[in-house]
């Protein structure tokens, strides 16, 4: 019984958010492969992109038009099922009520992403690399309250580094 309670506590603390579907990656007693992937599910989006609010955000000198993910349900769906040509040069901004250690995975997400984690005071903590359809977690390096997803390589191309300020 104690191990079941410990497992449930671990799942509650470690369950990834954003770009996932609310399910934790499969638990095994073995170490998962380095690049664990999941087959894409056939269903589409619950929140079509055109139904989401958008806003202009800036990171350093770069500006992005971002879809807003501001509810747990929108966090869960993230950019799932959004192909690179539909994402284009846009972004998705995840807004959470509090700053906490965060981790995202890329299940059902066909587009490689930069996943940028920002503190409560909107300072860039780190940028992780999300691989399409991967169940490998991409984690914040400290408590994050805001997360910005853009096409992979965007932050490096624009020279955006930890310490940059998120403005909106």
Layout: helices, strands, pairs:
Layout (H helix, E strand, L loop, with lengths): L1 H13 L39 E6 L2 E8 L2 H6 L6 H4 L3 E10 L2 E2 L8 E6 L5 E7 L7 E2 L4 E8 L2 H5 L7 E2 L1
Parallel strand pairs: 2-3
Antiparallel strand pairs: 1-2, 1-9, 3-8, 4-7, 5-6, 5-8
Description:
The radius of gyration is 16 Å and the shape is globular. It is an alpha+beta fold. It has a single domain, classed as Jelly Rolls (Sandwich). The chain has 4 helices and 9 strands. The termini are far apart.
Features:
168 residues, alpha+beta, Jelly Rolls, 7-stranded mixed sheet, 9 strands, 30% strand, globular
Give the structure's gist in a few sentences:
The chain has helices spanning 2-14, 72-77, 84-87, 154-158; strands at 54-59, 62-69, 91-100, 103-104, 113-118, 124-130, 138-139, 144-151, 166-167. It is an alpha+beta fold and 168 residues long. The chain has one domain: Sandwich (Jelly Rolls).
Provide the succession of SSEs.
HEEHHEEEEEEHE
> How many domain units?
1
Counted by DSSP, the helix tally is 4
- In CATH, the architecture is Sandwich
By CATH, the topology is Jelly Rolls
Measured by DSSP, the beta-strand proportion falls in 25-35%
What's the average pLDDT? 83
Shape: globular
Strand order of the largest sheet: 6-5-8-3-2-1-9
Rg for CA atoms: 16 Å
Class in CATH?
A: Mainly Beta
Q: How many angstroms does the end-to-end distance come to?
A: 47 Å
Query: Got a strand count?
Result: 9
> What is the percent of helical residues?
10-25%
Which stretches are low in confidence, meaning pLDDT under 50 for 5 or more residues running?
A: 1-17, 20-33
Q: Structural class of the secondary structure composition?
A: alpha+beta
Largest sheet: 7 strands, mixed
User: What is the CATH superfamily classification?
Assistant: Protein of unknown function DUF192
